[in-house]
Design a protein that fits this description.
Strands 6, 7, 8 and 9 form a four-stranded antiparallel β-sheet that branches. This protein is α+β, with helices and mostly antiparallel strands and about 280 residues long. The protein is about 50% helix and about 20% strand. It has three domains: about 50 residues, no CATH class; about 100 residues, Band 7 domain (Tetrahydropterin Synthase, Chain A, 2-Layer Sandwich), CATH 3.30.479.30; about 40 residues, no CATH class.
């Protein structure tokens, strides 16, 4: 029971913790494993002290930083860090005031690396999460290795424009979109004119071809009619004359039509019953 609260002669470490055994303020044992490998014996009560360090992964939500990137643009970068104590002995020696002091040092180190990495990127590369950002954890671990800290991951979770430049940037983006829309409309208008001109040309060609075909068909019809009329006239001229007269009567004599001609006019030859009987 005393070992569980680090008060007995036996010190037992847990899987999610580190332990340092101090004798008169000086470290004499570093326990990083659990079970039998993480035991220390004998601890001298009231002389040996035990300090406990968290072995779990720590989350650091770094303060947003304004950084100048390639192209003289300025952005506010918000990032976070996942880190872990790798060596409790080196961690205690580097940060005697504990986690608070360590997080400040980690934020300064990682913030400097983020600024150096982001400063070489363009806006497009940054928004695409360039591969250069994937090595931030390794570079941070190299710089913090002597402090007993291992950086597991560094991620940028938010990028935004500073307030003074936000309006100007948005106006620039709107003007770019307006320029693109003007170009698209101009291309559309040009293509519309080309389509209309092509359609009108095709329509004229179709009308001309249709007129030509109709003239050919009309000529063929007139020729066929003339042939039929000639053939009919050759077989019975009187009957042909009678049909032509009937057609003339039909066209000339409508309802309430008045004609002033002599009774013996040739036009009424087939209407004169006396002459028809004589014929």
């Amino acid at each position: 029971w005393a070992a569980q609260i680090d008060q007995g002669p036996l010190v037992i470490n847990r899987a999610d913790e580190y332990r340092l055994v101090l004798r008169l303020g000086r470290p004499i044992a570093e326990l990083t494993e659990a079970g039998w490998e993480g035991m220390f014996y004998p601890r001298i009560p009231f002389i040996d002290e035990v300090e406990v360090f968290d072995k779990k992964i720590q989350y650091l939500d770094a303060a947003a930083t304004e950084i100048e990137i390639a192209g003289n643009d300025r952005l506010i970068i918000d990032y976070y860090v996942l880190w872990q104590i790798r060596s409790p002995l080196e961690f205690r020696r580097s940060f005697p005031r504990g986690i608070g002091q360590a997080t400040k040092r980690i934020q300064r180190t990682v913030g400097s690396l983020v600024g150096d990495a982001v400063g070489t990127l363009t806006m497009a590369e940054l928004l695409a999460r360039a591969e250069l950002l994937d090595t931030l954890d390794e570079r941070a671990t190299e710089e913090l290795a002597s402090n007993g800290v291992r950086v597991i991951d560094v991620r940028i979770n938010r990028t935004e424009l500073p307030l003074p430049t936000e309006a100007a940037t948005f106006e620039q983006m709107r003007e770019q979109r307006r320029a693109i829309s003007r170009e698209k409309r101009a291309i559309g208008a040009r293509e519309a004119r080309e389509i209309r001109a092509r359609a009108e040309r095709e329509a004229r060609e179709l009308r001309a071809q249709a007129n030509a075909d109709s003239e050919v068909m009309r000529g063929e019809g007139d020729a066929e009619a003339a042939r039929i009329y000639a053939e009919a006239y050759g077989r019975d001229p009187d009957f042909y004359a009678f049909l032509r007269s009937l057609e003339a009567y039909r066209k000339a004599l409508g309802e309430k039509t008045t004609l002033i001609v002599p009774p013996d006019h040739e036009f009424f030859r087939f209407l004169d019953s006396t002459q028809n009987g004589a014929d």
